Amino acid sequence: MLIRKAEPSDYDRILEIYRYAQDYMIRSGNPNQWGRFYPDPELVRNDIENGVCHVLCEDDGPHAVFALIEGPDPTYQVIEDGAWLNAGPYAAIHRVASDGQMHGVFRCVADFCKNLYPSIRIDTHSDNSTMQKQIEKNGFSKCGTIYVEDGSPRIAYQWISQGKHANMEP
Fold first, then answer.
1. Would you say 102 and 74 are in contact if contact means Cβ atoms under 8 Å apart?
2. pLDDT value, residue 170
3. Residue 50 and residue 142: Cα distance in Å, rounded?
4. Residue 110 domain flag
5. How much is the pLDDT for 160?
6. Which CATH number is 136's domain given?
7. Cβ proximity of 55 and 65 under 8 Å
8. Residue 85 sits in which domain range?
9. Is the dihedral of CA 62, 112, 50, 126 positive or negative?
10. What is the pLDDT of residue 163?
11. Mean pLDDT of successive 10-residue stretches along the chain, which has 170 residues
12. 114-117 contacts: CB < 8 A, separation 24 or more?
């Protein structure tokens, strides 16, 4: 499995992966987090152009996608019912999705990001039990509640390296 930055030629395939993920979330009891409208095609295009969109590929092409964005993230400025593990620099993982053909997608995403940044934040909807389990299984600590742009709440998590480089920027 290879993780690389998405290229403009990946755009249509990325939209297919997001459509699959939207349908999966709706079927599994999480119809409100993304519905069939998020992420919209313009956001996907911007993620690719800004170099923050990454794809997980096998020989036959991309099967998963995520955005990795260096902070500060405006939605993480205020946290309720808890606190971030630290106030230092971090990267945020957003918009993780898979076409269901690969196993261990979030573990690969988390490991990739952990090798690049000593502090990572991520959030998910309270109805997204699949993602909550994966986030917690991969060493992230639940920190509280944040609110995304439309005002809806998300469970916020953070991971901090315990290694000797824990306080260093990448």
1. no
2. 38
3. 29
4. yes
5. 97
6. 3.40.630.30
7. yes
8. 2-160
9. positive
10. 66
11. 95 97 93 91 98 94 97 94 96 97 95 97 95 97 96 97 54
12. 114/159, 114/161, 116/68, 116/91, 116/170, 117/70, 117/90, 117/91, 117/170
